[in-house]
Amino acid sequence: MQIERALESLRKQGIKTTGKRRALLEVLGADYRFLSAKELYEALAPEYPSISFDTIYRNMGMFVKAGILETTNLEGERRFRLGRSCGQAHDDHQHYVICLGCGSSLVLPGNCPVKAMALPGNFQITGHKLEIYGYCEQCCPADGS
């Protein structure tokens, strides 16, 4: 289970696994879209009425640093999603198409196009991200425009 791997990764890094942190991971793990802090807040507020945006942002930052979350920016807002690897070491990575309507994301198939690029000079890539934005079949206007 992805959430259990994420919690184990936190524990191995010396990060305490509290009830609120587990609840945050459960909300993130229940949906494969990138979620905003507001969406996380709204999902957790009924069970944790004292939760604040500061708590959510602080924990999301910690989770990103721990390697269990992926992030993106949509419409000027940072969004989060439980990472595929949940802190596990891996050499591969994924690229996405992200729906601007519902926020769903799908993995682009095939090999990484960046690896095949001819880079100028002796440029060394330390990381990259490829995200394509548009509308999924459910959110796309009927006339295709």
From TrEMBL:
Task: Note whether Membrane occurs among the keywords.
Answer: no
Q: Which GO terms describe its biological process?
A: negative regulation of DNA-templated transcription; regulation of secondary metabolite biosynthetic process
Q: Cellular location of this protein?
A: Cytoplasm
Q: Which SUPFAM superfamilies match?
A: Winged helix' DNA-binding domain
Q: Which UniProt keywords apply?
A: Cytoplasm, DNA-binding, Iron, Metal-binding, Repressor, Transcription, Transcription regulation, Zinc
Does the keyword Metal-binding belong to this entry? yes
Positions with a binding annotation for Zn(2+):
C99, C102, C136, C139
Q: What's a Gene Ontology MF term here?
A: transcription cis-regulatory region binding
List the CDD domains hit by this protein, alphabetically.
Fur_like (cd07153)
Predominant location category: cytoplasm
Which cofactors must be present for this protein to function? Mn(2+); Fe(2+); Zn(2+)
| InterPro entries, per the entry | FUR (IPR002481), Fur_C (IPR043135), WH-like_DNA-bd_sf (IPR036388), WH_DNA-bd_sf (IPR036390)
Residues bound to Fe cation are H128
Identify one Pfam family in the record: FUR
The GO cellular component terms are:
cytoplasm
Describe cofactor binding as the record notes it: Binds 1 Mn(2+) or Fe(2+) ion per subunit. Binds 1 zinc ion per subunit.
**Family the UniProt entry places it in:** Belongs to the Fur family.
Kindly provide the name given to this protein in its UniProt entry: Ferric-uptake regulator
Please give the organism: Desulfurispirillum indicum (strain ATCC BAA-1389 / DSM 22839 / S5)
| Highest classification ranks of the organism | Bacteria, Pseudomonadati, Chrysiogenota, Chrysiogenia, Chrysiogenales
